[in-house]
Design goal:
The chain is α+β, with helices and mostly antiparallel strands. Helix content is about 20%, strand content about 40%.
Length: about 350
C-alpha cells in the first residue's frame, strides 16, 4: 500500500511552486500543510475499478471485454463516480481499495450525454477500507497553468499513482463517437499509468476538491494543432444537475437521443466518416468509412459539433434522418432511421 504522505508531499511542493511562482517564498508552512492534508484526504477517496463485460457485447469490439480504471467515492452510502464507458454492458464489476481489498459492485447509472458512470459496492466500502468521501468542487474558477492532482486507482498488481499535472485549457470537446460536451478540461503532462488506468481517474484542485473525471489521452491538450500530450477530463459541474436523476433512472433525459453508429472526424471544414458500427442504422443505410457528411436534413455541417447538434435536435431518438453525403465522386441523399443508443446495449445488472 502506498504511503499518502510519501506520495502527496512531493506533489504539493512542486504544485505550489508551479501555481504561485512569484509568491512561493511567502507560502507559510501551515498553508502548505493544509494543502497536503486536503490532497491526502482526496487521494484516500480513490479506488480501482475492474470490469468484465457480457459475452457478445457490442462495446467489446472497441473497448475490450476486460477493462480497468479508477473511481472516486462521492457519497457516504458508497456511491462511486467513474467514466461511463468502463461500465458499458458490464457483467461483473469489482472495486479495488487502497488496502488491497476487492469488493463486488453493481452499476447504478451510465449517462451517454456526459459520459459519467455511477456504481456502488455490494459490501460496505467504508467499513472495509480507510476511505474518505471526496468533496465535489467546480472547475469554473480553474485557470490555465493551475497545478492539479490526478490519481489512478489501485489494481491487484498495481498500487495506482498520484500524478502532478497542470490545466492547459478549457474548451468544448467533440468526440468521434457521437459525443459532445460544451466544456472539457485538458491537462498536461499526461497521466503516467498502466494502459487504461487514466479511465475514470479523478482530478483534484489544491483544496482537494474533485473537479473532473478522466476520459481520454489526447495528443494536443492545447487545441491549437500542436503536439502536447495530455488528458481530457469531464468536469464534475456536469454531474450536479443530473445526479439525482441518474440514481433514480440510470441515465439522464439528454441521453435519449438519435444515434447512427458512426465514428467521424472533422478537419478543414469536412466531416468524414472513419468507422461504421456493425448492425447500426448507418450500416443498414449503406454508409461507409471515407464518406463525407455534407448536410443533415438539408442544413450544411462542417464540424462534428455542427453535425451532432443538428442530429440531436429532435424530440424522438428513433427519428428519421436525411443525410447528404459524398460517396466517392457522387453526392447522395440517404434517409435512415436513428436508434436510441441506450436500447442497443446490454444493460449491466443493477441499471
Amino acid at each position: 500500500m502506498r504511503s499518502l504522505r510519501f506520495w502527496i508531499s512531493p506533489f504539493v511542493s512542486a504544485a505550489l511552486l508551479l501555481a504561485l511562482p512569484t509568491q512561493a517564498a511567502t507560502v507559510q508552512p501551515s498553508q502548505a500543510q493544509t494543502t497536503i492534508d486536503a490532497l491526502a484526504r482526496a487521494n484516500s477517496s480513490v479506488v480501482g475499478v475492474r470490469v468484465t463485460v457480457a459475452e457478445g457485447a457490442r462495446s467489446a469490439e472497441t473497448l475490450g471485454q476486460r477493462r480497468s480504471g479508477s473511481g472516486v467515492l462521492i457519497a457516504s452510502d458508497g456511491l462511486i463516480l467513474t467514466i461511463g464507458y468502463l461500465l458499458l454492458e458490464a457483467e461483473q464489476i469489482e472495486i479495488v481499495t487502497q488496502d488491497n481489498k476487492i469488493l463486488p459492485a453493481r452499476a447504478v447509472a451510465y449517462d451517454l450525454a456526459t459520459g459519467f458512470g455511477l456504481l456502488r459496492p455490494l459490501l460496505p466500502l467504508r467499513a472495509s477500507s480507510n476511505v474518505s468521501v471526496a468533496v465535489l468542487g467546480s472547475s469554473q474558477s480553474a485557470q490555465p497553468g493551475e497545478a492539479l492532482m490526478a490519481v489512478t486507482g489501485p489494481q491487484p498488481n498495481d498500487d495506482g499513482d498520484v500524478n502532478m499535472t497542470r490545466l492547459i485549457s478549457k474548451r468544448a470537446f467533440s468526440g468521434n463517437w457521437e459525443y459532445h460536451i460544451e466544456t472539457a478540461l485538458f491537462t498536461s503532462p499526461p497521466i503516467v499509468a498502466n494502459e487504461g488506468n487514466h479511465s475514470g481517474a479523478p482530478l483534484f484542485n489544491q483544496k482537494g476538491e474533485l473537479i473532473g473525471i478522466g476520459s481520454l489521452l489526447v495528443s494536443d491538450a492545447t487545441g491549437q494543432n500542436r503536439r502536447m500530450p495530455g488528458n481530457m477530463f469531464v468536469p464534475v459541474d456536469l454531474l450536479r444537475p443530473i445526479l439525482a436523476e441518474l440514481q433514480k433512472s440510470g441515465s439522464s433525459v439528454k441521453s435519449r437521443r438519435p444515434w447512427l453508429g458512426l465514428n467521424s472526424n472533422d478537419q478543414g471544414g469536412r466531416v468524414q466518416i472513419t468507422r461504421v458500427s456493425k448492425d447500426s442504422p448507418a450500416e443498414g443505410a449503406g454508409l461507409e468509412a471515407g464518406d463525407v457528411v455534407l448536410a443533415v436534413d438539408g442544413a450544411k455541417v462542417t464540424t462534428l459539433e455542427d453535425f451532432y447538434k443538428k442530429l440531436w435536435n429532435r424530440a424522438a431518438p428513433d427519428a428519421e434522418i436525411s443525410l447528404t453525403v459524398l460517396q466517392g465522386a457522387d453526392v447522395k441523399t440517404i434517409v435512415l432511421k436513428a436508434q436510441d443508443r441506450m436500447l442497443t446495449l446490454k444493460k449491466p445488472a443493477g441499471i
